Amino acid sequence: MDARAAMGAKVEEWKKLGFDADACPVRDLLDRIGDRWSILLLSMLAPGPLRFNALARAVPDISKRMLSQTLRTLETDGLIDRMVEATVPPRVTYSLTPLGAGFMGPLIGLINWAEANHGAVLEARRRMAASVAEQEAAGSEYGWVQRAAS
């Protein structure tokens, strides 16, 4: 079964079960890992364990506070482990759990798709912005609605 057919079958399965947005596991997990930093931090941990400062250096545009918060969320969700060694100062190392390592297969698929299709997505955005600007210049407040209806 190809991916579109499999997705269609999954949607039909959800409908039969009585889709509940609040209980949707896909939405729940995407809300957690779909933030700005989680995927990047999980990717940095894929090759092996890293200490906090190594992660901070690997992702230089993340604040220490946001790094701590994101790592805590990933740990809460069981995707990473936090190991504290009783040294002075304490040595804290982060690594993927088996659950987090299991996510690397789907994640590399998403990353490969994004790399292969990013240019096409940017071009689609450019075309849409030009179309909306053209509609607005013609006096239409909702250019995208008229475009969809035509």
Profile the largest sheet. Answer: 3 strands, antiparallel
Query: What is the residue-mean pLDDT, rounded to a whole number?
Result: 90
Helix % is: 55-70%
- Could you give the order of the helices and strands? HHHEHHEEHHH
Ends: how far apart? 34 Å
Taken from the alpha-carbon principal axes, the silhouette is extended
Quickly count the helices: 8
Structural category is mainly alpha
How much strand?
A: 5-15%
Oligomeric state of the chains present here: single chain
Using DSSP, what is the number of strands? 3
Q: What order do the strands of the largest sheet run in, or round the barrel if closed?
A: 1-3-2
**Cα Rg:** 21 Å
